[in-house]
Write a structure and sequence with these properties.
- By secondary structure, the chain is α/β, with parallel strands linked by helices.
- Helix content is about 35%, strand content about 25%.
- The longest helix is centred in the middle third of the chain and has 18 residues.
Length: about 500
């Protein structure tokens, strides 16, 4: 008798030195369903994904696929079982074209045995149309925004026609419009050929939009599987963290009198067109808009990462020349990038090295590091931001996403900035860590720091920002005070309806 389940996990355990990442995990995923897997950072989701795709092997337990016991000893084995995985943070081949990224691995050859680039480009063009991506197949992957790189990774997986598609935080860098397109594609393929999807996300609201069932992991253990229609957000959160999450309730900031920074007529090519605004000391100023609106480009220009064509930046009443990142840092400007993997952490270095890298002058004298000062500084921020780390000397890439982000925030705070730019600060972070980071940002602002916050999650913008600017096609199209802002008003301004 044919099994109704595509994959079944039976008593799966995985042990790393000193850590039991998975403990006796058992549940099944039905054929043709979109099955959500949720849990806090460190719950064991990534370990289970890596076991599914052959990167890791369990210490105990076994897996059934279509009712048959299997061993997935390598990614090649996973491919044989028609399993495709799109990881949240996987390096792309930046200097190769979109088409060559999609056709990585065995590539189509012409009758003369050469690479059939015409076929690759034509097939890539069809795939790009699925996601309404107005790109050419021969464009370099590295020139694309992070969201479009993510969509192309998903297209590559879809192109291989898997039976089981694993998506790890697929919408963490996508706009609302792109998310809706992805969900439409998943539903269409699922209906056409019974595609089974394991959908991993920290964005719990969207789980209820796309998933048929939800499985919860906590501290490496299986908690429960529920039908989406039989549960709600609060019940899922309680299963994940074992408690209710204290959400930040906005309180009006009455002390927003002194202007920290004013920008006048900032322009850069086609991406920024005469941008002018001000931000006050102690204010959290939100930047909302659709993907490609110019929000990241604006913040990069203020931070000196991209050169402006024209415009002025006035900081505390004085005109400053931000020629590069170095001059921005000297002027008290800090920036948390949306691309934590490539532009935030230095993965091969320790937590300590990542934290002190900007504030080296504080812990060194005449070219020598002072170990006592380093230890005190690092331990102070570990305590202040509640960074979960077994030892400050451990590599930062061994930490959860939320704790990596806290280290990056600490890095900049150690340099006593005046303005903190946060570009998608909670991307790919679990609900508990997200709440902690919101509280940290609010506390920093209330202490007098100016915060410029980009987020694609409108509830995040609405919950903590004192004022919101909306961008579209490189221009500011609207401004809203906290008390008058709604998702509907922001979207109207963002889409010029």
């Amino acid at each position: 008798m044919e099994s109704e389940n595509f994959i079944e996990f039976h008593n799966i355990s995985k042990i790393f030195p000193g850590v039991k990442a998975l403990s006796d995990v058992s549940f099944e995923i039905k054929k043709g369903e979109i099955h959500a897997l949720v849990g806090e950072n460190g719950a064991g989701k990534s370990t289970l994904i890596n076991i599914c795709c052959g990167v890791l092997q369990p210490n105990d337990g076994y897996i059934l696929i279509n009712g048959q016991k299997v061993k997935i000893d390598s990614p090649k084995d996973a491919e044989k079982f028609k399993i495709a995985t799109v990881f949240q943070e996987i390096p792309v081949c930046s200097y190769m074209t979109i088409a060559k990224n999609i056709f990585l691995g065995p590539s189509p050859k012409s009758k003369f045995g050469l690479l059939n680039e015409n076929y690759m480009n034509n097939e890539t063009k069809k795939l790009l149309e699925i996601f309404n991506l107005k790109k050419y197949p021969n464009e370099l992957m590295g020139n694309l925004p992070l969201a479009e790189q993510s969509m192309i990774q998903i297209l590559r997986a879809i192109h291989n026609k898997p039976d089981f598609l694993i998506l790890d935080e697929p919408t963490s860098s996508l706009s609302i419009e792109q998310k809706d397109i992805l969900f439409g594609v998943l539903r269409k393929i699922r209906a056409e050929r019974e595609l089974t999807v394991l959908y991993v996300s920290h964005r719990l609201e969207e789980i209820f939009e796309i998933a048929n069932r939800i499985s919860v992991l906590k501290d490496g253990k299986y908690i429960n599987t529920v039908n989406t229609q039989d549960t709600n957000l609060d019940m899922i959160i309680k299963m994940m963290v074992g408690r209710d999450i204290d959400k930040y309730i906005y309180e009006k900031n009455k002390n927003l009198k002194d202007t920290l920074m004013e920008v006048r007529n900032l322009s850069r090519g086609k991406v920024l067109k005469g941008i002018s605004f001000n931000i006050n000391k102690g204010e959290i100023l939100g930047l909302a808009g659709l993907q490609g609106a110019g929000r990241t480009e604006l913040c990069r220009a203020i931070f000196g990462a991209d050169k402006l064509d024209s415009g002025e930046i006035i900081l505390e009443g004085k005109k400053v020349q931000i020629k590069n990142v170095g001059t921005a840092i000297k002027n008290g400007i800090a920036m948390i990038s949306e691309n934590r993997r490539d532009e935030g952490i230095i993965p091969v270095l320790s937590v300590t090295a990542n934290l002190i890298i900007v504030a080296i002058k504080k812990v060194a004298k005449i070219g020598y590091f002072i170990s006592r000062k380093i230890k005190n500084l690092v331990n102070d921020y570990i305590a202040r931001l509640n960074i979960k780390v077994s030892n400050p000397s451990q590599r930062i890439d061994s930490l959860s996403g939320g704790n990596q982000q806290k280290v990056i925030i600490s890095r900049w705070l150690a340099n006593n900035p005046k303005l903190l730019i946060c570009d998608e600060p909670t991307r790919g972070i679990d609900v508990g860590s997200k709440s902690e980071i919101h509280s940290i940002i609010v506390e920093l602002a209330r202490s007098g720091l100016g915060v410029l916050l980009i987020s694609s999650e409108l509830p995040e913008i609405l919950s903590i920002c004192d004022r919101i600017l909306v961008m579209r096609e490189g221009r500011i199209t609207g401004e809203l005070q906290h008390f008058e802002a709604t998702e509907e008003k922001i979207m109207h301004m963002a889409t010029a309806i």
